[in-house]
């Protein structure tokens, strides 16, 4: 099944093709629930114009990281920086960073 041909204006409005926004899933466990840990995590994200949506369940954080700019995507470089930061934290274990996926439509 082929997708319908859409003009640039409609592709932009629907966040398709060259206007798709990419992000990635992130999960990690923490040994100590600490506001400074999450504040530092948010500082790292915000310094790159990224945001995260998600939450904490017991000792695990699960979220999705994406750009806070319209029609902008997370880059592989930014994903690597976040993954490295998570790995370097002594209060974080089992950090997992997923691949880049379409933030609007998934997959």
Jot down its keywords.
5 strands; 5-stranded antiparallel beta sheet; 29% helix
**Largest sheet report:** 5 strands, antiparallel
Q: How would you classify the quaternary structure?
A: single chain
End-to-end Cα distance, whole Å, is: 17 Å
The Cα radius of gyration reads 16 Å
What's the mean pLDDT score? 92
Shape by Cα distribution: elongated
Q: What is the string of SSEs from the N terminus onward?
A: HEHEEHEE
Give the low-confidence spans.
none
Task: Name the beta content range.
Answer: 25-35%
E-strand count:
5
Percent of residues in helices comes to: 25-40%
Structural class: alpha+beta
- Tally of alpha and pi helices: 3
Describe this structure in words.
It is built from 3 helices and 5 strands. With 107 residues, the chain is α+β, with helices and mostly antiparallel strands. Strands 1, 2, 3, 4 and 5 form a 5-stranded antiparallel beta sheet that branches. The radius of gyration is 16 Å and the shape is elongated. The mean pLDDT is 92.
What is the compact description of this entry?
With 107 residues, the chain is an alpha+beta fold. Helix content is 29%, strand content 31%. Strand 2 and strand 3 form a beta hairpin.
């Amino acid at each position: 099944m082929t997708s319908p041909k859409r003009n640039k204006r409609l592709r932009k409005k629907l966040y398709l093709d060259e206007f798709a926004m990419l992000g990635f899933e992130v999960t990690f466990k923490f040994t100590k629930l600490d506001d400074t840990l999450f504040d530092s995590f948010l500082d790292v994200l915000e310094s790159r114009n990224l945001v995260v949506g998600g939450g904490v369940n017991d000792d695990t954080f699960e979220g999705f990281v994406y750009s806070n700019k319209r029609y902008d995507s997370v880059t592989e470089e930014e994903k690597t920086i976040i993954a490295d930061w998570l790995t370097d934290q002594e209060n974080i274990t089992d950090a997992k960073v997923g691949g880049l996926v379409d933030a609007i439509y998934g997959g």
